Amino acid sequence: VADWFAKLWPFRTIGPTIPSMYLDKQLEDDKDYGISLFKPNNDFYMNWLNDRPKGSVVYVSFGSLVDLKAEQMEELAWGLKRSNCYFLWVVRASEEAKLSKDFAEESSKGLVVRWCSQLEVLAHEAVGCFVTHCGWNSSLEALSLGVPMVAMPNRTDQSTNAKYITDVWKMGIKAPVDEKGIARREIIESCLTEILEGEKGKEIKSNACRWKELAKEAVNQGGSSDTNIDEFVATLQRATVSDSCTMETGSIDKAAAESIEQISDEQSIESVLVFLIKDLSRKMVCKQLSHEQSIESVSVFLIEDSSRKRTCKCQES
């Protein structure tokens, strides 16, 4: 997709876009994706992980939206138990009724929680495998932190992501399903055993480590992502003097131009985004955009079109 877009416009990719402290470590306070209304208690499961051997724990999570069938929950539970592996399983409150009440108590090697900080868990040295629904965020986090995966895609783009995990990145195994769409306990047990103990698992772990290093290289200073962000900022700066786009107001607002020019090469992409959000209130809309026009024209159009749509919605309400 990225290669196709690049043929149409000066398209550039960035990322992986996970908090800095898990990759380049350039921003000490960048440890999560946003602001939480409450401070969760992570000590319980993190202390549990601290007491487990390196690479011995299977982390299981299917994100915040996927609803597994009760039959699949049962098969997964038995697969984890049969594997005799340590496991940390995130089961949302809405899913708890599908799991046997005494399952966690019966399994001496498992810990079932309602929520956890996924980045912290995946970054822990005790975690050696991630059973995932293959959502893009989860896939990218596992790749960035070098964690092998057992792919159990559920819907939308997850099957495509699973294809990348198993056949392109080669850092995971897909759990086959039967005619009912269920991955059986024997399959799950086999996948976990292969990754943690098998010969193929050694190759998968090696590939996972390689992708982890490539992810770090991309976001480090001078890496592909870092370079592309610098080019994006430079493009915005050049847009202040470009006359390639005809505006309803006749020209780019002087205050907007001065704001962009204040963004220096040393400042982060957050500075650019803050400016863009503030500038949404300015009423400038590109009338026409041809295929030949530059990325500067496209950027300004998108910014101002968002402002126009927001204004219209406010008037309607």
From TrEMBL:
It comes from Dovyalis caffra. Keywords: Glycosyltransferase, Transferase. The keyword Transferase applies. Belongs to the UDP-glycosyltransferase family. It comes from the Eukaryota. It catalyses: an anthocyanidin + UDP-alpha-D-glucose + H(+) = an anthocyanidin 3-O-beta-D-glucoside + UDP. This is anthocyanidin 3-O-glucosyltransferase. Pathway: Pigment biosynthesis; anthocyanin biosynthesis. The keyword Zinc does not apply. Its EC number is 2.4.1.115. GO terms for molecular function: anthocyanidin 3-O-glucosyltransferase activity; quercetin 3-O-glucosyltransferase activity; quercetin 7-O-glucosyltransferase activity. Pfam families: UDPGT.
